[in-house]
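User: I'm putting together a teaching handout on how multi-component assemblies are represented. Below are the sequence lines for each component of a complex, exactly as they appear in our records. Could you produce the 3D structure of the whole assembly as structure tokens, so the students can see both representations side by side? Please keep the chain order the same as the input.
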Amino acid sequence: MRPSVIWRWPLLMAVLTVVGLVSALLGEGGVWWGLSWAALAIPLVVMAACVVRR
Amino acid sequence: MNVRSLRRWAAVHKWTSLVCAVFLLLFCLTGLPLIFKHELRELLSQDPPYAALPADTPRASLDTIGAAARRRHPDHVPMFVFVDDDEPKVTVGMLPSPTALPTQTRLLKFDARTGELLKETEPAETSGPDFLDIMLRLHRDLFAGLPGELFLGAIGLVFAASVVSGVVLYAPFMRRLEFGTVRWRRGRRLRWLDLHNLMGIATMAWVLVVGVTGVLNELSRPLFLLYQRTDVQAMLAPHRGRPVPPLDRLSSVEAAYTLVQRELPGRTPTSVVFPNNRVGSPHHYLVWTKGSSPLTSRLFTPVLIDAERGELAMVVDLPWYLRAIQVSRPLHFGDYGGLPLKVIWFVLDLITIVVLASGLYLWLSRRRSPIEAQLAELEGVADEA
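Assistant: Of course. Below is the structure of the complete assembly, with chains in the same order as your input.
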């Protein structure tokens, strides 16, 4: 498999994590907190989906 | 990746992981309750409740509260006044004498609006640490002070190397596998290898951020002490040796506090340290301020107020490395985005424990064959699957 395929999901999850960590840090409350929770939760949901799909 | 570099990275991953495994488990386990430190403290607190007053009730004057503290302990001297910003709380720290050790500090907690004394905490020497204190000390310095902090900071760097080498190894192991494949029916070892890879790669960014900011945190106290001993002492040098003015000659603490609020918008004063000849200035109130945005909420900067004349004397700017470290602190604690963010921190902490445990299992159940043979074997199985 090509590196671009191998790294597609991991990189997407890393970017989402960074967006989630930074948005609550730079933005104050409200929308920014919501964005932070959603962005950080997506990698967890992806992981759970992979584990559940057996 | 060729076989030689693959072997090298595998060795790095194995040894760095083994070196930090026990400590990482300690970080993860003690970190779990620390994520909810604030909530647990509130829950476990047996202090009398605050008076039920409208949210916009003004705070009582710090001078009134200070006078109440001195009436209660006429033989003590006030050392600092701390004004909380999310609870209506003002804490006064008092010492039996101006030269007594900080461990003899007696804490008086007041309701900030009514100025009523709610609780008195005996000096730390007589009352032991509570559960959260123990968790924090284990997490931060293993009860070993500065050497413990530096040691755990070094362990944090080893852990970062373990994560990076794990990420490097991810690609060769996933060469023939779809993302997120978990081979459930190919034996326990493959199942745990796949789970280790999936959970490790999904949490890599978070784990690296928390790990690196943890290392920065370990460095912050020694660097801060160094800064206090060198730069701050140099700034205070002209005042050194001057006698500390008697309490009745001091200007109003309340005025010093509100002066900082007025003159430095964007900074919230958190505490006022009384003039003294040890940690502060003998001639100034030292007002600690913090930034009012989440990014700067742990960025503490000192302001000096002439304690006799009540005038703003100096705003001290921290050196860039201390600012950088302080700004990165919330990223370690996860306490800057409400309760849901703390819950996410909790889940990620638990997943890190699973990655750690599965890694240990993979090492314990290892085959005594070279890495390329193992890889070929794993891939063979993948091809069949």
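A couple of points students might notice: Chain B touches chain A through 35 residues (CB under 8 Å). The mean pLDDT of chain B is 90.
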